[in-house]
Amino acid sequence: MARAPSELHTVYASPGTIAAYRSTGKFPNQTVLVKEVFETKTASLTTGTVNHAAAESLKGWFLMVKDERAQFPDNKLWGEGWGWAWFDAGAPGKSTSTDYKSDCLACHVPAKQTDWLYVQGYPPLRR
How far from 121 is each of 6, 9, 52, 56, 127, CA to CA, in Å? Predict the structure, then answer.
C-alpha cells in the first residue's frame, strides 16, 4: 500500500491567473496564491482507501504574491520575484515567516525553473 499523504493542499489563485499562465507560461505581476494546508487521515471505506482532510485539521496558509518589480527590496519576505509568508491557523493575524531565504526558499529550489512553483501538481495550469 502506498504511503498516505500527510497533508492536503487547496490552492486559490487571483482571477485571471490560470488563463494567463496557460497562455504565457508565466505568472502575471500581482498574482496572489493562497495554499490552505490541512493534515490528512486515511480510512478504509467500502469504496477503497481514502485520504481526506482530518476534522479541524487546518494547519495554516502559505501565501505568495508575484512581484516582478521588486517593490520591497529591503523586506526579508520578498525576493526571487515573489512575496512569501506562512500564517499558522491558530494565529492567522501575523506571519510566522521571518525570512523567505531560510523559511521558504529551500523547499522551492526544485521548482526554480517554473517560477518557484510546483506547477506539475496543479492540472489547471498545464498548457
Answer: 16, 10, 17, 24, 13
- Residue 122: predicted pLDDT: 87
Query: d(Cα 72, Cα 78) in Å, to the nearest integer?
Result: 6
Q: Find all residues with CB under 8 Å of 28, minimum gap 6, and list them.
A: 16, 17, 20, 66
Taking phi over 0 as left and psi of -120 to 50 as alpha, with beta for the rest, 23 belongs to alpha
| CA–CA separation, 58 and 4 (whole Å) | 17
CA-CA distance, 43 to 112, in Å (whole number)? 35
Can you give the residue ranges of every domain in the chain?
Answer: 7-39+49-125
Q: What is the pLDDT of residues 37-95, one digit of tens each?
A: 999 888 898 999 888 888 789 999 999 999 999 999 999 999 999 999 999 999 999 99
Phi and psi, residue 111, nearest 5° = -105, 15
pLDDT at 7 over 80: yes
CATH 3.40.228.10 fits 7-39+49-125, yes or no: no
